[in-house]
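Take the subject:
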Amino acid sequence: MSAPNAGRQSPEPERQTEAQVGKPESGQIDAAPSKEHAQEKSEDAKESVLSSNPEGPLEGAAHEKI
């Protein structure tokens, strides 16, 4: 190896382990969800999770003091 910081380089190809040289075991890439699925999940999130103006953590305590 000819780099100034030899510890930062990969080992020579003949000294690499199978994990470094071989292909990943799960070579399959999952496909992206369909556009319809994404739209459906987005609508579900809007209805159940998100709100336009969420209540702050101290808003309830402030109303009790008034």
